[in-house]
Write a structure and sequence with these properties.
Layout (H helix, E strand, L loop, with lengths): L4 H18 L4 H17 L7 E3 L4 E5 L7 E5 L19 H7 L2 H7 L8 E5 L12 E5 L2 H10 L8 E2 L10 E6 L8 H8 L10 E10 L2 E10 L25
Antiparallel strand pairs: 1-2, 2-3, 3-5, 4-5, 4-8, 6-7, 7-9, 8-9
Length: 250
Amino acid sequence: MRIPFRLALTLLLALAAAPAGAANPDALWQIVHDHCVPDQQANGAPAPCTLVDLAHGYVVLKDREGATQFLLIPTAKVTGMEDPAILAPIAPNYFAAAWQSHDLVSQRVQQMLPDDEVGLAINSAYGRSQNQLHIHIDCLRTDVVTALRAHGAAVGTAWAPFPVPLVGHPYLARRVQGADLSDANPFTLLADGVPGARADMGHWTIVAAPTTLAGAPGFLLLADQLNPTTMDRASGEELQDHACAIKAAS
């Protein structure tokens, strides 16, 4: 039986609220605002963060979940995908900044992982538990890496359905050139490239996965939209593996 849309949305909102209700949804903001930034300003030390970049407005924090997961968090109050600040003309490219810290994942496993085994993800407003923008930096799932390697060549420069579902969900995909995302802001590319996305960003999730395109470095950008009828929260973090099982095969 198909679940009515309104009922499905109500159930999905209840599920999304459950993690936030069990914990402090402002915990990340408080860590950044009350501890990492003041410590950097007063003592030149980022603790408890791994890195504080005041000039570019972000910190990198080792997440308590998983051995290898890090978070890129703005030093400004930015709630998440739905915040208009991410699409402002002078908005920092937080994805590019997150990729600059991806080697921290390899350092945690004490081996150099191939770039395409590490990915960046930001969840939708309905797939997160914190009300401060944060980009997850961690290993990708082994099955996701396999699918991206097998079908990545079929992805073009415009958003289109990825050839196969990823973790059971249909993703849109597009490719961009470059080794570091400095010339490609995934937020802007989604907002400008998918009809209706700019007005509804909070319903979307974005994942950036490195790849090689015609012998040159690039990224596959993946996006999924909230779908209450299938209980899809649009949580791109699902493509990551916080246990980093793929390290055993690297």
